[in-house]
Amino acid sequence: MDPRGHVIAYDAVVLAGGEARRLGGISKAEVPVAGRPLLDHALAAVADARRCVVVGPPELTRPGVATTLEDPPLGGPVAGIDAGLAALGVGGEPRIVVLACDVPRAGAILPGLLAALADPEVDGAVAVDPDGHRQTLVGAYRRTSLVAALAALRADGGVHGRSVKQLVAGLRLVGVADPGGLAADADTWQDVAALDAAIERRHE
After folding, report:
1. The predicted structure's pLDDT at residue 24
2. Is 92 exposed, middle or buried (0-12, 13-18, 19+ CB in 10 A)?
3. What are 97-142's pLDDT values in tens digits?
4. pTM (2 d.p.)
5. Are 109 and 182 a contacting pair, CB within 8 Å?
6. Cβ contacts of residue 106 below 8 Å, gap of 6+?
7. Domain count for the chain
8. How confident is the model over 145-178, as pLDDT tens digits?
9. Is residue 60 part of a domain?
């Protein structure tokens, strides 16, 4: 919501591909945390999106949610973002939430990210963890800025295998503090256990 309590409209791209090597190569999107798959936590976080697309293999399809996949597969997050935007098509909302599927508590920080885009001088807003690291896959971006950044990479060799750091290098980003670690992701089984415990405590 904005400062006046109005809901801020946005579209969403949820990244659910990748090999999850540190989790033994299983489908990270299907790893259960607090009783449901990580992907379902991510979709709940962006439940208010006008349109949402999951970038991942067909077996991750959820009822009523569009699913697509970068071509060729396993192209990395930038290729995934590119495929997600293409699947959303033209004429959507000017704000795009980009969310990795392994951040089950992201819904609590998304309103702050969207509100930060009220500043016309910024291209995007990203979560900043307690150690000061930017979480660029927990972010809200201006569609036009994201499209232009992707076009620049395509003109410079393509988007496959490119890093998110390269994608956002020319964007004016504002950081939104995340002192509670709400943007913590599940890269390892230890992370999964910690997130599971944190969410269960919240529900007690």
Report:
1. 57
2. middle
3. 999 999 999 999 999 999 999 999 999 999 999 889 999 999 999 9
4. 0.92
5. yes
6. 41, 42, 45, 99, 127, 138, 182, 183
7. 1
8. 999 999 999 999 999 999 999 999 999 999 999 9
9. yes
Token duo for residue 17: 């591909």
Could you give the CA distance from residue 41 to residue 200 in angstroms, rounded to a whole number?
Answer: 13
CATH number, residue 45: 3.90.550.10
Adjacent-strand bridge partners of 52: 12
At 39, list the tokens: 């992907």
Asked if 186 and 104 count as a contact pair (C-beta separation under 8 A), the reply is yes
23, amino acid identity? L
User: What's the angle, vertex CA 98, arms to CA 17 and CA 51, rounded to 5?
Assistant: 95
Selected residue with higher pLDDT from 191 and 10: 10
**In the chain, how many H helices and how many E strands?**
6, 9
**Does any domain span residue 6?**
no
Mean pLDDT taken over the chain: 90
Short-list 90, 123, 101, 107, CA closest to 1: 107
Residue 81: both structure tokens together:
């973002």
Token code pair at residue 75: 């192209």
Determine the longest span between alpha carbons in the chain, in angstroms.
51
